[in-house]
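so im writing up the methods section and need the Alpha-1,4 glucan phosphorylase record in one place, dumping it here so i stop losing it
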Amino acid sequence: VEASIPQPLRETWLKLSACEFNGKEQFQKEVVRHVETTLARSIYNCDDNAAYSGTALAIRDNLVIKWNKTQQQQTLQDQKRVYYLSLEFLMGRTLDNAMLNTGLKDTAREGVGELGFRIEDIIDQEHDAALGNGGLGRLAACFLDSLATLNYPAWGYGLRYRYGIFKQEIINGFQAEVPDYWLDFNPWEFPRHDVAIDVMFYGTVNPGPRDDHGNIKKVWEGGEIVQAIAYDVPIPGYGTDCTNNLRLWSSKPSGGEFDFGRFNSGDYEGSIRDQQRAETISAVLYPNDNIDAGKELRLKQQYFWVAASLHDIVRRFKKSHRPWKEFPEQVAIQLNDTHPTLAIVELQRIFIDIENMPWDEAWSIVTRTFGYTNHTVLPEALEKWSVPLVQNLLPRHLQIIYDINLFFLQSVERKFPKDRDLLRRVSVVEEGTPQVLRMAYLAIIGSHKVNGVAELHSDLIKATIFKDFVDIFGQDKFTNVTNGITPRRWLHQANPKLSDLIASKVGGYDFLRDLTKLNVLEKYIDDKTFKKEWMEIKLAAKVKLAKYIKDTTQMSVNPHSLFDIQVKRIHESQYKRQQMNIFGVIYRYLRLKEMTPEERKKQVPRTSIFGGKAAPGYWMAKTIIRLITAVGEVVNQDKEINGLLKVIFIEDYNVSKAEIIVPASDISEHISTAGTEASGTSNMKFVLNGGLIIGTCDGANIEITREIGEENIFLLGNLAEQVEDLRHQHRFGKDVTMDPKLREVCDAIEAGRFGPEQTYSGLIASLTIGFDYYLVSDDFSSYVATQDLVDEAYKDQDGWATKSITSVARMGFFSADRAINEYADEIWNVEPSNIKPS
Ligand code: Z15
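--- predicted struct ---
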C-alpha cells in the first residue's frame, strides 16, 4: 500500500513543509537546538564532539531537504537512471564535503566560531566511513560525487558493513589490526525499515507447474531466508541542489525464520545463534585489495547485496507500468569489477522464473542493461568461484549460469566451427578439481560494454586476458574510460589555500565544475609573486604534515627537506613495489655514510614518507612494513646523517589522512611493474596538488605524462612490452648476477644492519629463488638514477615551481566529471536531469 497524505489535506501539509535554514543565525539556532534536544546535552557539557554532532545534524537538515526534492523530481521526470553496484564505497568523512558542496562552509565557520569552536576541530571529530580497501572503493566514491555534481539521476548500491577496513597500528615496527567499529554515531545514514527484502540461500530446485509455453518450471525453494534492510545516504553535488542516493544493505534475520521449535524446547541460545548468522553477512568488509580469497561468506555477501539491489531496481521500474522491453531504456547497471556479476544471473532469473519471460527475450534485456568495468589484469585478483560452493549456496543460479554458458558456446561454435580449444578457453566453467566459474567471462558475456580504467590497461585486457572475447564479440564491445578524481574533495577540500589561489587567477571557482579551466594558469608561469605564493602554499602543506607527524609519531621532520611520499595499499605479492622504494632509501643511506662532511653538505635533504595497509595474514606485505620501520629506526637517529635522510611510516593511512598527505608532496612514487597497475588514482591527486611524480610507464602515469609533458615527470624503468621477456630471462636465463647496486642493498640487509636478517629472508628470496617476478632488479638502477635527477631538479626551486604549476594547469582531463560524462555517453546513454533550484 502506498502511504501518502490524501489529496484534500496536502495543502495543509505543504504549508508546514520543512525548509532549509538560511544564514548564520538560523544555522546557530539549529546547532544549539540539536545539541540540546536531539543529543540532550547542554552548554555545560558541549565538547568538540557534541559540537560536531550538532553541526552535522544542522547541515544534514538542509541536505535532506534537497535530497527529498531531488528524489521526487527524478521520480516525476521518470528518465533513465544509472545504478552503480560496488562492494566498496570508500567515502571518508562527510561533513566538510557536505558543507562545501552546499555552499555552507563559511556560514558554519562563522557560526560555530561565535559559539566557541573552530570548524577544523569539529571536522576532525568525524570517523571516516571506510567501506573500502583502496583505489576501487575510492573511485566509486569519487564517481558518486561527480554523478551528483553533473545532475545525473544515479544511485549507488553497496553493503553497510558494521566493520569497515581495519585500523592499522604499528607495534614494535609491525602491523597489527584493530577492528573498525564505526557506527556508534553516524548522522549521514537513514534506516529504511520499510524497505526490507527477503533474500534466499541454499535450498533445492524442484520441478513445478507448467508455464504458458507448456514447459515444466523450475522452482527454487526451501532455503534459508535473510532480510536486507536499506540504509540511505545522501550524496550532494557541488553547486547544484541535485542530491543523489547511496543505498547500503544491512542483513538481519528474516521475521518468518525465528525458530520457535527450538525456542519452545528450551534452546533459546541456539536460536539466537541462528539469528546472528544472518547478521554476519554484512558484518565485515573483506580486507583484501586485488586478491581473490574465495570464501563462502564473501559469496554470500555478493549475492545478498545483488539480490536486494535488483529486487529494488525491478520494483522501481514496475511502478512506471512500462513494458519489459523498455527496461534497458530506463535502467543502466554498472558492475564495479566482477564482485556484482551475479546481478546478471539474478536479473535473468527474475525474468524467466518469476516474470515468466521466454529466455531469449529476457537475455536480450539483460545484456542491454549491464556494463562491466575491469580493474586488473593480475591473475590472483580475477574471481573464480568453486562450482560445488555455488551449487550448494545458489543451486538455481548455477543452472542459469550453465544455460548462459551453453548458449554462448553454441554461438561461438557457429562463428568459429570446430575450434575445440577456443571453446575450452572461453567457457565460463574452467575444468579442474573442483571446477570453477570464471566470473570475468560471465560479466563480459552478460554486458553490452566492457571497459578498462586507463588506456594502457584497456589495451592490455584486449590483447591478453580477454583476447578471445574481442575475436568473438568484436572490438566495439571493449572500450576505455580513464579514471578520474573529484577536484572538490582532492583540491578544494584538501587544499583550500591552493584552491583559493587558483580561483583568484582563473576567474573564480568554476574550475571545480570544469577542470579544464585550470589551463589558464599557464599564463602566470612567469609571474614571480604568483610563483612565490604557490611555493609558500606547498611549504605550508608540508609544515602541516610535519606537525601531524610530530603529533602522532614524536618524530621531527624538516619541512624544507624534499618530501618523497608513497602511500597506497601494500599488495600481497608486491606489484606496487614499496620494496623498490625502501631499497632505494637504503642505497641512499649507504652512499651518505660513505661521504665526507663536505660532500654531505651538498646533498638535498630528503624525508621518505610511507603509508599503507597490508591485508592481515599476508606475510610478504607485512615484512615490507617491518623493513620500512626498521630502516627508520636506524637512519633517523644516525648522528652522521644528521637529518639529511628521514624515514617515516604513517600509521593507518586512510582518506582523511590522505587529505593531509596529498597536498604535502614534492614528489610521490607510482612505481609499479609496467603493465600491473590498471590505472592508479592517487597519482592524479598528487599532481593536481602541485606535486611531481616519479613513476613507471604504467596505468594512468602514461596519460598523465602525455597531458603534462615529459619534462614534468620523472619516468623510470622497463616498459610493459619488455616484461614478458625479462621474466623469461629471470626464470631460464644463464646470467643470474644481480644488479650490483641492489646486491649492495641486499648485503646490508643480510648483514643485519636493520635487525635480524631472518626477518627479511623471504623478501630477498623473492628476488632470487622467486625469480624476481616484479622485476625490481631490472628497474632498480634506473630508479636510483632517476632519484638523482629528482635531487638535481629540486636544487633549482624556480624550475621546480615551473614544473609544478604547468602540471596542475594541464590536469583538467583527470576530473572524475570527464570520466562520468564518458560513461554516460558511451555506455549508459543517460542525460543529466533538470534539478530545479529550491
Ligand atoms: C582495486 O583497488 C583495484 C583493482 C582491483 O581489481 C581490486 Cl579488487 C581493487 C584498483 C587498481 O589496482 C588501480 O590501479 C585502479 O586505479 C583502481 O582499482 C580504480 O580503477
